[in-house]
Design goal:
Shape: globular
Largest sheet: none
Order of helices and strands: HHHHHHHHHHH
């Protein structure tokens, strides 16, 4: 999941080992990791072997009957004119290039809602993350609509949906209180669009969530004052 379909076997194994050993067990195992293990492994692979994460390069010899350019790369380098071939419905149905499991918008939304209903993840983080992405993208789009993509585009491309429902909500690296969860999710969404629009990386979800993992303990210290007084 998350990696390109054409990733070599050794890259998958390396990412798994890094995630398990460095991202989780070095901190004491399940429940003790301050950072999302999947994102630790993914970020290290992105920095060390960035060419394997160039979706435009790895899919150049494939033809699936729709625009195979990576939507976020087109938006970053060509502006709004580069993404006219993509409609919201196409993005929802997965007619876009990207990481395995990260492109089928409808499936991710259904899966996320199921996890929320069953109580496996908290809706506050997912909703505030999507709101942070949408509002920030809206401000950029209003400032220069010819250069910056719409909020809908940012919500349905890259790792946004898989980040909102499956990555940002990891228990041990996310807050447990209501207000901190809203701050955590909204901050990750804000950073995602900032990295996409003015940063050096095409997609900012991975690094945005890791940065919010870093300040998660500070967020969780924000609590409402107790009512009444101690006797």
């Amino acid at each position: 999941m998350l990696l390109p379909a054409t990733s070599p076997w050794w890259l998958v194994i390396t990412g798994t080992l890094v995630a398990v050993l460095i991202g989780k067990h070095i901190y004491g195992g399940i429940g003790g990791n301050p950072f999302n293990p999947v994102l630790i492994g993914f970020a290290i692979l992105m920095v060390a072997w960035k060419d394997y994460f160039d979706f435009n390069e790895v899919l150049v010899n494939y033809d699936f009957g729709f625009a195979m350019v990576y939507p976020l790369a087109a938006a970053k380098h060509l502006g709004k004119s580069g993404i006219e071939a993509f409609s919201a419905m196409d993005l929802l149905l997965g007619q876009q290039s990207g990481g395995i499991g990260a492109t089928f918008g409808i499936g991710l939304i259904i899966g996320g809602i199921y996890l929320i209903i069953r109580g496996f993840i908290r809706w506050e983080i997912s909703v505030s993350f999507l709101a942070g992405v949408g509002v920030t993208a809206l401000f950029f789009n209003m400032f220069d609509p010819s250069h910056y993509a719409s909020p809908v585009f940012h919500l349905l491309t890259g790792y946004t949906l898989i980040g909102a429902f499956f990555l940002a909500t990891e228990d041990s690296s996310s807050p447990v209180n209501f207000i901190p969860m809203l701050i955590y999710g909204a901050g990750a969404g804000l950073l995602t669009v900032l990295i996409r629009n003015i940063g050096s990386y095409v997609d900012g979800v991975v690094f945005a969530i890791l940065l919010m993992n870093l300040i998660n303990p500070l967020c969780d210290k924000i609590r409402p004052k107790a009512l009444g007084k101690v006797v």
